[in-house]
Amino acid sequence: MSIPVVDFSVASLSVEDMSSADLHQLSRELKVAFMEVGFVFLKNTGITQEEVDHVMDASRRFFLQPDQLKRLFVRKSFPINPYHGWVAMETERLHPEKPGDLKEAFNLTSLHPDIKWPSSEAAPGFQETQMTFFHRCKELSLRILRVMALSLDVDPDIFLNAHRLIGTEENYTTLRSSYYPPVNSEQAKEGQLRCGEHSDWGSITLLFQNAEGLQVRRRSREFICVPSVPGTVLVNIADMMQRWTSDHFVSVPHRVLLPPAGDCSSTRQSLAFFLHPDNEAVVSCIDGSDKYPPLRPSAYVKEREYDSYGRA
Ligand SMILES: O=C(O)CCC(=O)C(=O)O
Ligand SMILES: [Fe+2]
């Protein structure tokens, strides 16, 4: 198994109105990828490599600031949004039974004007690039949701109707910039990785990476390495979408390895857009079956959060 590459041109963000496009071929290809692999590379989405590089450059400048500055923006310090903000090294464990992940991250979850950002002297371009990219990823995700609904022959708005509040406190969608600093893999703790094995929690995830290291688990349980393909967006199904589609679309575990022994100087960066349904939407099996009971994203996310961060 390898991860398929699908051409998204007909629904690209550079096509102003996709409603009249012929999306059938595209929807068939996406369906096969999401049913069989759970991951797909999309090319020609309208989001360019240049845009991605620009956001990664601004993120890197933020991460290279002293922790003392970044702590002013730490996650859980924003009264209006508990998810938004900076996550220090080894704070998060995406595999709940393993040591903390060897990465730093910045979660953009709230676009509220009361949210405090680093000054443009401390982190040039950080706020603007993050916010602009959040919107770009949102627009692309909504297009993907529409094609996914078509592919399943259900109401084309069925997923869109549950993603109306992105960027507000009523929706957990997050643009996460991750920074994996150089690490000597021989000094890491037993079982420690750059990002522990996990599946994503939301509806779908868009991922942009600037280096290898990502691995995806196959049905046979062995992991395969995912290349970094410039100019593409890697899209995967997340857990709530798997339930929503009664397991037709599969949410697949993945992880980010430490660099190979002897490589103590490479950094890695990624940008992940975790698309989530609105907190109070109801996610129930779209085929009308009772394979899973209906869930509320707010309650579901809280439960998953305890696993990754503890019940504190
Ligand atoms: O950094 C990456 O390439 C993937 C990270 C990831 O899977 C996640 O943060 O959920
Ligand atoms: Fe992930």
From TrEMBL:
Domain of life: Eukaryota
Keyword Chaperone: no
Cited PANTHER family: 2-OXOGLUTARATE (2OG) AND FE(II)-DEPENDENT OXYGENASE SUPERFAMILY PROTEIN-RELATED (PTHR47990)
InterPro entries: DIOX_N, IPNS-like_FE2OG_OXY, IPNS-like_sf, Iron_ascorbate_oxido_reductase, Oxoglu/Fe-dep_dioxygenase_dom
GO molecular function terms listed in the Swiss-Prot or TrEMBL record: metal ion binding; oxidoreductase activity
Keywords: Iron, Metal-binding, Oxidoreductase
SUPFAM superfamilies with a match to the protein in the record: Clavaminate synthase-like
Family per similarity comment: Belongs to the iron/ascorbate-dependent oxidoreductase family.
PROSITE patterns: FE2OG_OXY
Naturally occurring in which organism (per UniProt): Hippocampus comes (Tiger tail seahorse)
Listed name of the protein: Si:dkey-10o6.2
Domain Fe2OG dioxygenase: 171-277
